[in-house]
Amino acid sequence: MKHQISIIGCGWLGFPLAKTLIDQGFVVKGSTTSKQKLYPLRDAGIDAYYIQLDEDGITGNYTDFLKGSQSVIINIPPGLRKNPDKNHVAEVHHLVNAIETLNIKNIIYISSTSVFEDEAHFPIINADSEPNATSNSGKQLITIEHLLKKNTNFNTTIIRFGGLFDEQRHPGNYLAGRNNLSNPDAPVNLIHKQDCINIISIILKDNIWNTALNAAYPEHPTKKDYYTKYCQQHQLGIPIFDETKKSKGKIIESKKLEQLLNYSFKHGL
Predict the structure, then answer these.
(1) In the chain, pLDDT over 70 holds for what percent of residues?
(2) What is the pTM (predicted TM-score) of this model?
(3) Is residue 50 in a domain?
(4) Which of 137, 164, 173, 200 is most buried (CB neighbours < 10 A)?
(5) Cα–Cα dist 28/3, whole Å
């Protein structure tokens, strides 16, 4: 019997992830919050469902979406920039209750390196570093991580990705030509989308459960140097940084991931 996976959130990362897993022999169910996106998902061989998580519950046929899956990948952004008062923890809590009811064995939770605070001395964040974010979004992600880790009804692996990018969607395009950008001396912590897909695939294939992994490319130039060079190479406006204030940041170390998964990052900065 083939391993079936339900991916909560088949968007920019989840859609190509689903297609990769299908190519590797997995059966994949995928969710979207846009009914128009059901058709391209189904055309790609994904058993697609309209699922919307809300503070009050779940909209959509989540029972059929989850039924029969051995593993669930939770890949949904908190959405707190647009709606800072939202209780994302409550949304995930409803999902966890459904996962428990259907006796699903494994969860991969896509978290973020934003669970670690930016600081003036640029701390090195390694496998032993405890999440310490003070932002609303960061604190909610930490709460969700704890909610999943302490639940003994399933295995949980948490992946904290740095800033995701690919050739079409790169933060340098957004920063190009802007003024008064903060933290010029802060290290960048980026990871290519394809590396994210590779990492998730290995975790599923090799059954790497009940751990938390930090994932960012192991080179960390300063924001000013990196984005200035990127914009020069792509004939974009040079970003201007505010150098009057002390920079805050961190360095995300991925050695635990590289050793545990025997993984070498394929896509540089």
Answers:
(1) 100
(2) 0.96
(3) yes
(4) 200
(5) 9
CATH number at residue 52: 3.40.50.720
Distances (CA, A) of 165 to 12, 47, 142: 10, 26, 23
Phi/psi of residue 8, each to 5°?
A: -80, 105
Residue 172 lies in a domain: no
And the tokens for 269?
């900065």
Angle at 78 (CA atoms; ends 74, 80), nearest 5 degrees = 175
Q: What is the mean pLDDT of the chain?
A: 97
Tell me if 95 sits within 8 A of 8, measured CB to CB: yes
Q: Is 29 among the domain residues?
A: yes
Q: Place 77 in a pLDDT band, splitting at 50, 70 and 90.
A: confident
- The tens digit of pLDDT for each residue in 33-46 reads 999 999 999 999 99
Q: Report the alpha-carbon distance of residue 255 to residue 202 in Å, rounded.
A: 16
| Apex 244 CA angle, 240 and 247, nearest 5 | 85
CB 109 within 8 A of CB 145: yes
Torsion of CA 238, 241, 247, 252, to 10 degrees: -20
Whether residue 247 has pLDDT greater than 80: yes
CB contact burial 4-16 (16+ within 10 A = b; e otherwise): bbbbbbbbebbbb
Q: How many domains does the chain have?
A: 1
Residue 75 lies in a domain: yes
| Largest Cα–Cα separation, the chain | 61
CA dihedral of 228, 229, 235, 236, whole degrees rounded to 10: -30
Asked whether 8 and 148 are in contact (CB, 8 A), the reply is no
Q: What CA dihedral angle connects 139, 145, 146 and 147, to 10 degrees?
A: 110
